[in-house]
Structures are given as C-alpha cells and as structure tokens.
Amino acid sequence: MRRRNPRAVTRTPVVLALLTAALAASAVAGLALGPVGIPPGQVLDIVLGGPGPSGGAFGAIVWDVRIPRVLLGAVVGAGLAVAGTVLQALVRNPLADPFLLGASSGASAGAVLVIVFGAGLLGFAGEAAVPLAAFAGSMGALVSVHAMARRGGAMTTGRLILAGVAVQYVLSALTSLILVLAARPDQIRSVLFWTLGGLGGARWGELALPAGALLLGTGLLIALARPLDLLLAGEEGAHTLGLDTGRFRAAVFVLTSLVIGVLVAYSGAIGFVGLMVPHAARMIVGSGHRALLPVAALGGAVFLTLADLIARTAAAPEEIPVGVVTALVGGPFFLWMLCRSTRTEGVVG
C-alpha cells in the first residue's frame, strides 16, 4: 500500500468538496432520469417544495420512489467503500474487498436463510431478524477466510484470494440450494435479489438502520484512524508502537462485519465497490485513514449512485441489477490489480 503523502493530505478539503458536488449532481440525475423523465429544474422544485399533492404525479415518483432509492444507493456505496478500505488495512492486502472475501456472500446467505426458513425468527425479532442474520453471515465468512488465509504460514495475496473464492463457492452453493427448496415464487424472487444485488426495494421506512450503521461505523473507524495507520507498518512495527494487533483486528472485524451485514440486508450482494473506490481514493489523498475514509465514503456514494442510474436506464424499460453493473466494471479492474500485484505467488505458483 502507498505511504502517507503530506501534499496529498493537504488537498483533502478540495477533494471532499468536489466529491460532494459530484454526489449532488449524480443525485439530481438519479431523480430526473428513469422510465419517466423529469426535467432537472422541475426535480429541484419538487424537492425544495417538499412532499405533498402539489407535486402531482411527478412529485409522487420523486418522493416515494426515487429519493429513497438514491439515498439507499449513496449509503450502501459509502459503506461498502469504507468497509473495503478498512479490510485492506486489516489484512495488509490491496485486493481485499467485502465481496471478494466472502463477507457480502455470507451476509446474503444469512439473510436468505431467515427469509425462506425463519418465519418464527421473523416473528420474534421483527424487522431486525434479516439484518442480524446478515451480520452473522458476514462475520462468519470474514473469520473463515482470514483463518484459512493465515493457516500454514504468512498470509499472501494468493492464499487470501483462494480462501475468499472457496468461501464464496460454498455460500453460493448454499444460496442455490435455498433457491431450489424455496416453495413460494415470492421467496425465489427474494433469493435472486440477494444474489444479484439491487436498490429497487428502497423505502423511506427502511433507510434509518443502514444510514445509522454507516454513520456510526464510519465515525468509529475514523476515530481509529491512527491504529489503522499503524497496521500498515506491519505486525512488529505496530506492536513496537504499543498496538495490541490481535484484539484491535478482532474488534474492527466485528465492526466492519456489522456495517456490511446491515447494508447487504437492504441491498443484496453488490461487489467490487470496496475494491475499486479505496484504490482511487488512496491515489488522490494517500494512505492516512483520517483523510482516506471520508474520501472513500463520498467516492463510494457517487460511484454506486451512478451505477444504479445506469442499471435503471441502460436497458429501459427493463432494469439491470446494479450488482451486474458493478461487476462489469470491477471484474476487469480486479484482473488488472491481480496482474500488477507483486505478491501473487500463491495464485500463479
């Protein structure tokens, strides 16, 4: 990973301002474009006028359908980017990502299990049952991948990727089995939603929990920026500087899994956001996490908002799952990263 660049850090406020403007522009585009086009000026009038009958049919589309979807996309994109940034620091590997390490697949498998077979649990825990199951699946996947990658020696890029692929195969097989066993058509649609990822189910009443998880998780991780920076010096260097790496890594794994689980519970498995955005942010502001995490969060929000816009408009009136769009962009990026990595012995030999 790149070392901290003082000149890069000094331009962080400018970068944050530009990303905020880009997010506002992408949000307006997301509200204006779709199967029913709405002029941007009218979108602004509807938003500034507030919800109500005065907006007419366009007002109902903007407030009831598009604003919740754009907000959920921004929240999920920001959260996945932050999670990817932190995972790359925890395992000291530039190819770490919630999707590649199985966290998103684990969260999806946990959520799907509750949806299809957990009727009693849904009644007992209410709306929290699916996010709780997603968190448990995300945590279990991350712990499994990390344990397998470290087994038998130092963790390498190759071992980490192979462990992530293995866990993903197992979880994908489990999700496919659930799909086969699901008896009702609505359950099958839900399983496909978790498999491909999508923001079409966004509702106002469902935004509070993912937004709260993002704000709380990102705030805590920014407060832990210094120990995250110490991890970049390696285990011995961090120990020398007084960091209990074992406890710290375990605590941050739990926090990251919680954020991923909650987000995936409302968006399904959306891959590669946590791989691409942190790299782009790191090239701009360096590796210091106090600057890197806010920039990654805004960058992830912009990226997923635009990806969802493409998913809604590229094949209109049909809608492409947003996870397919991010995979089409992220897959080639991952291959490029893998080819340029200098630590791929575990894969190629």
Topology pattern, helix = H, strand = E: HHHHHHHHHHHHHHHHH
Task: Kindly name the structural category.
Answer: mainly alpha
Average pLDDT works out at 83
Share of helix, binned: over 70%
Q: What amount of the residues lies in strands? A: under 5%
> What is the terminal-to-terminal distance?
23 Å
Q: What's the number of helices?
A: 17
Q: How many strands?
A: 0
Walk me through the structure.
By secondary structure, the chain is an all-alpha fold. Helices cover 76% and strands 0% of the residues. It is built from 17 helices and no strands. The protein is globular. The chain starts with 5 loop residues before the first helix and ends with a helix. 46% of the residues are buried.
Provide keyphrases for this structure.
349 residues; mainly alpha; 0% strand; disordered C terminus
